[in-house]
Design the sequence.
């Protein structure tokens, strides 16, 4: 059951009188947070209670979790009530709210996190709008090509925002180099996954690649997980 959030005591959550399901309630930032209720929700597996193009409600052990999703996730999953679902998730915490975002693939979540964590002025709403407006592959191609017009077609993304996305992802973060090299086969999928994971953690692309290559030189068969662990030890040392 790894990766699925389990409340310390589900009975503490109130039961919705209409659905009969318990609604998950998360402590706010100024509340006392116990180790049991402060776990990061990285993945959610359960059965769909309600399905809409912009959100899903998932029953996980009697607790109903609402996850905001991009249309790309809805189109990929074709969710129906009662069907099983496995979401990659991100819990976004603000002073007065905690919102769970869900994605069909790791790639979608990675782009979402890059946008909200590495591009100034981009929040979850705009990141979801971008993912809803184009496939991940198209978004990557637009950033690599510097296609301001295509990025500007997404809801809430004007010319200046599109330019900032390209500038900060392409020039400051350097993630586009990894995307291009992975697409052309210059780096393996394992190496690319490791680099992208390190970039998402805040490391520069050039430093991430150097650390990953040092490990591959010693063991070319290293998995992405092994590369990430080894690179983190090197970068933090």
Sequence:
């Amino acid at each position: 059951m790894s990766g699925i959030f389990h409340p310390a005591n589900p009975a503490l959550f109130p039961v919705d009188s209409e659905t009969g399901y318990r609604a998950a309630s998360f402590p706010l930032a100024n509340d006392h947070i116990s180790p049991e209720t402060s776990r990061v929700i990285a993945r959610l597996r359960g059965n769909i209670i309600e399905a809409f193009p912009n959100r899903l409600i998932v029953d996980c052990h009697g607790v109903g979790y609402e996850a905001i999703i991009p249309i790309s996730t809805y189109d990929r999953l074709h969710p129906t009530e009662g069907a099983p679902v496995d979401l990659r998730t991100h819990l976004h915490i603000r002073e007065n709210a905690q919102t769970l975002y869900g994605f069909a693939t790791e790639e979608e979540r990675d782009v979402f996190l890059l946008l909200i964590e590495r591009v100034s002025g981009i929040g979850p709403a705009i990141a979801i709008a971008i993912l809803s407006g184009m496939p991940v592959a198209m978004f990557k191609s637009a950033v690599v090509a510097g296609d301001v017009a295509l990025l500007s077609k997404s809801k809430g993304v004007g010319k200046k925002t599109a330019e900032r996305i390209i500038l900060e992802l392409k020039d400051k973060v350097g993630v586009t180099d990894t995307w291009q090299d992975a697409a052309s086969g210059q780096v393996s999928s394992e190496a690319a996954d490791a680099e992208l994971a390190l970039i998402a953690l805040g490391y520069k692309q050039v430093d991430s690649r150097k650390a990953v290559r040092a490990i591959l030189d010693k063991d070319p068969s290293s998995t992405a997980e092994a590369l990430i662990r080894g690179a983190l030890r090197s970068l933090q040392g």
Observations:
- Strands lie at 22-23, 43-52, 55-60, 63-68, 84-93, 98-103.
- The radius of gyration is 19 Å.
- The CA atoms of residues 88 and 103 lie 5 Å apart.
- The first helix runs from residue 71 to 77.
